[in-house]
Amino acid sequence: MTVTVVTGSASGIGAAVCKQLAKAGHRVIGIDRQNADIVADLSTAAGRKAAVEAALAACDGVLDGLVCCAGLGPTAPSSSVIVGVNYFGMTELVEGLEDALARGSKPAVVLIGSVASVHPGMDKLPMVSAMLAGDEAGALAQADAMAMPQAAYAGSKYAVTVFARRKAVPLGARGIRINVVAPGAVETPLLDASRADPRYGEAIRNFVAPIGRNSAPDEIANVVSFLQSEQASFVHGTVVFVDGGMDGMSRSDRF
Ligand code: NAD
């Protein structure tokens, strides 16, 4: 039986992914802050280490899939915690579980990015350079110094996308596929919190996808399920926008 670890399993996109993968016959090991097979705080190095150790024990060191959904939006308590969960909470899980994935059958990884990752200028931020250099203390300090949670969010999603693309060569050599799914607006508690926030609510209400509505979590999970399946056996190192046309609208001439 295919064994897949899913982070952020307790809510929103992660919960929808767990449901679909279980229905497709995977054994799913969920990780979240609460209501999960493995309860862990992915915002800290100690929490991530504990999550990796518990996941390795639960799968006996052999893993076929990893889907990293756990993430925080711009309404999180601080910019640094956004970077901690959205970047290091994904990349350290990939690195910690890489050997187990290499022992798995047709292993595949999906990281949940965001259409926000294409926001111009993210590649120039020192916070992003620190993330990509693996300098967690530096990245967290830069994020809090900027005090722009929306930049911490977009920057963390840009960095995690770059991380995945850079991993295409080393993971491909080990037979592990890795891809990023970049959602637009998805009806989850994360979006509800942003919409209710006076800083972001109006922009979120005004930024409507060309398709004329937001997504349901299952519409994102459908694409994750495909990427984790053998039908996607030659899809590797790429970014799939599942955004109702937002990226096409905002950068039609760049792809
Ligand atoms: P959600 O709030 O419903 O789910 C996020 C999950 O992550 C929650 O279960 C939460 O407990 C978990 N989590 C947060 N911090 C954690 C921590 N420190 N340790 C362990 N688990 C933690 O939100 P969602 O919309 O389903 O978000 C899933 C992913 O999708 C996130 O990475 C988010 O950035 C991304 N995303 C969401 C949208 C959207 O509009 N909802 C758009 C683009 C990308």
From TrEMBL:
InterPro entries xref list: NAD(P)-bd_dom_sf, SDR_fam
Q: Which UniProt keywords apply?
A: Oxidoreductase
The yes or no answer to whether the keyword Oxidoreductase is present is yes
State a single Gene Ontology molecular function.
oxidoreductase activity
Q: Which domain of life is it from?
A: Bacteria
Pfam name, any one: adh_short
Q: Where are the transmembrane segments?
A: none
Entry-linked PANTHER family: 17-BETA-HYDROXYSTEROID DEHYDROGENASE 14-RELATED, SHORT-CHAIN DEHYDROGENASE/REDUCTASE
Q: What is this protein called?
A: 3-alpha-hydroxysteroid dehydrogenase
Q: Which organism is it from?
A: Thauera humireducens
